[in-house]
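Good morning C.,

I know you're traveling, so I'll keep this short. The sequence:
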Amino acid sequence: MVVTSELRQIEGTLGLPGLVSITDHDTIAAPLALRAQPTTASVPVSVEWTIPFRGNSFHIGVHHLPPDSAVAVVKELGRYTQEPAEERLRDLFALLDSFPETLLVLNHPFHNIYRVPSAAHLSSLRQLVAFCRPWIHAVEFNGMRSFSENQDVLAMAEDLDLPIVAGGDRHGCHSNTLLNLSPAEAWEAFIASVRNDRRNTIVILPAFDEPAPLRELATACDVVRDYPRYPQGRRRYTDRIFVDMDGVGLHPLSYYWDGGGKPAWLSPVILALIALGNDHVRPILSWLLPRASQFDRTRWPRQGGESDQQPGLD
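The tokens, ready to paste straight into the viewer:
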């Protein structure tokens, strides 16, 4: 469904053929399953690799792994994620870089996902960049992060002399707000243009104009609403969210709540969330949010003479 929706947007909006790379965190199960289907056999084997590093963690988009060795490579990446050892990290980056048709992207570098102190996040980010700069091919301009944060990414990419690539980071049903635009007709050619020529063009779609908190609200709405056409056991959010409440392994919330025990306050909150996340309500909410950090097409790219102080990584 994700591949179909993305291709429909690319072909419908731009009238161009599309290439779609899908990543999950630290697993390639989805790309492998897609490649087993005739209609999605061209989807590359890609993964978002979690790198614990000096008290923090970062994410690397690893796109278009060699299919024959992808399972073994991702297993090694997972070993580092579970048991970090910096002496092995250089070898793993060098291994990934040795695949000429694989693209390594530093994803959402300024997103402090793990809530470490801000100064510590920037410090560990600088150290990571210094550590792995020879093997990073691009920095991600993220479709779910704010425009102000993405401006910091642009400054970082300029400091490092790296191209940017658009990453959607969608976790719901809405299509990506950013696309990469390339004359390449296959993944190999696109990756070569980024890795070797250090060139890329991104397209900012109208959906990116919506403030980032409202894009996140739309995703939350997608997560908790019902899908009657889904298979049994996947229709309700209580079937799709797994927790370990008793220390006996993961079970869906319905395992605990279908016989009673669901908090009385939760259903009204879910209904309110779904109402606020509705595609017709969010435009009204946008007027209640601060406008300073929102994307303004009339003012960007910035004209000469305008400048913002950016958190450089020199």
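Safe travels,
E.
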